[in-house]
Amino acid sequence: xxxxxxxxxxxxxxxxxxxxxxxxxxxxxxxxxxxxxxxxxxxxxxxxxxxxxxxxxxxxxxxxxxxxxxxxxxxxxxxxxxxxxxxxxxxxxxxxxxxxxxxxxxxxxxxxxxxxxxxxxxxxxxxxxxxxxxxxxxxxxxxxxxxxxxxxxxxxxxxxxxxxxxxxxxxxxxxxxxxxxxxxxxxxxxxxxxxxxxxxxxxxxxxxxxxxxxxxxxxxxxxxxxxxxxxxxxxxxxxxxxxxxxxxxxxxxxxxxxxxxxxxxxxxxxxxxxxxxxxxxxxxxxxxxxxxxxxxxxxxxxxxxxxxxxxxxxxxxxxxxxxxxxxxxxxxxxxxxxxxxxxxxxxxxxxxxxxxxxxxxxxxxxxxxxxxxxxxxxxxxxxxxxxxxxxxxxxxxxxxxxxxxxxxxxxxxxxxxxxxxxxxxxxxxxxxxxxxxxxxxxxxxxx
Length: 447
Ligand code: PLP
Known about the structure:
The protein is of the alpha/beta class. The chain folds into two domains: 35-65 and 348-445, Aspartate Aminotransferase, domain 1 (Alpha-Beta Complex), CATH 3.90.1150; 72-346, Aspartate Aminotransferase, domain 2, CATH 3.40.640.10. It contains 17 helices and 15 strands. Strands 4-10-9-8-7-5-6 form a seven-stranded mixed sheet, sandwiched between helices. The protein has a four-stranded mixed sheet with strand order 1-2-3-13. A four-stranded antiparallel sheet has the order 11-12-15-14, covered by helices on one side. Strand 8 (256-260), helix 12 (274-278) and strand 9 (284-287) form a beta-alpha-beta unit. Helix 4 (70-82) packs antiparallel against helix 14 (331-346), helix 5 (94-106) packs parallel to helix 14 (331-346) and helix 15 runs parallel beside helix 17 (429-445). It is globular, with a radius of gyration of 22 Å. The protein starts with 7 loop residues before the first helix and ends with a helix. The model is unreliable at 1-8 (pLDDT under 50). Pyridoxal-5'-phosphate binds at residues 119-121, 124, 153-155, 227, 231-232, 260, 262-263, 288. It comes from Aliidongia dinghuensis. Keywords: Aminotransferase, Pyridoxal phosphate, Transferase. Its cofactor is pyridoxal 5'-phosphate. InterPro entries: Aminotrans_3, Aminotrans_3_PPA_site, PyrdxlP-dep_Trfase, PyrdxlP-dep_Trfase_major, PyrdxlP-dep_Trfase_small.
């Protein structure tokens, strides 16, 4: 356990910090010098010592409409007083149906059937299970193989870490699902450094799916899952034509294509979903985060009509999908989702993201030439700034910038030595200037 004198700030904290085993955090390092956020409104957090922190990360890519939005607050307050919980197993309540209809209406094409979960990880596991059960329902039960991609992040369930392409999951947890294979990632600084938007080079990397099909045979492959833009492993924008190519190869071999839109959903790229932005219709879409503006946990899988119909062929009194969560379509989450979707529409926030994107792009690329910066990439209201790693200390430089940015009033997200910026879609141009101003000062200040 961490030992030695407790730092001064520790005594000022409202609670003992020991009990909470923090997720994806260096617990001892954090607790020695904690960064506590105590309130939030619109574009800003307030830290425990009272200093304002601009939210350059939409919390964790989720607070797309900004913090403390009255419409969502009121919807949640009303719902918790009216109907706090109702089961959705063999029972129902109106808000879950309304939320599902609203999500279906927002999704492109015939992605019209909505299964609710509570986190992106659960949505991913749900989609993978639907893919497996879909092929069984159609008499193709040999299709069990799941294909992910290197540097993919699909949450932390066993399904998600197996199709994901993050080496630490293999290092720390070992035996993942078998019957999984991976496409190569599309990140290549030599070819694509400092690209604005979609890189020209790399569509051919989708053809690797042909190699995987040739190796395993299509009759063993259930689904391919990718993030249209990989977020958590460092903002990897798909090369032009790449996603279309994946779609074509999946169609050729009867493989389901799943887009994990946990980050890209709800306006991040300037349209409701990345599938719309790129003009590629997957068979399933996973979403979470922005679905409720981060206010109440909720996630969903959008499923295309023919996939859903494959389940509807058996006896009417049989459960078509043996799957669900106690909190699937939770009333309060449903109310939060409805209010959030209203807010996105009323304020035109997806269109706003699209119209701010060029300004955001210029501001991000203006960091070119600053110390440590080796790449800048962007799409919609998301940017990745890749720093050169200190020899033998991957992540140290970006972590130090996170700490310094926080001190100077900016919340950023880092992964390895990549800084990811994804502000709420309500950001103003002068706030974009302020955000990149703080970051460039910090990059000049650190070693
Ligand atoms: N999928 C993607 C693409 C994500 O970015 C994330 C989280 O960042 C997840 C899944 C997991 O979501 P959660 O943390 O809600 O389980």
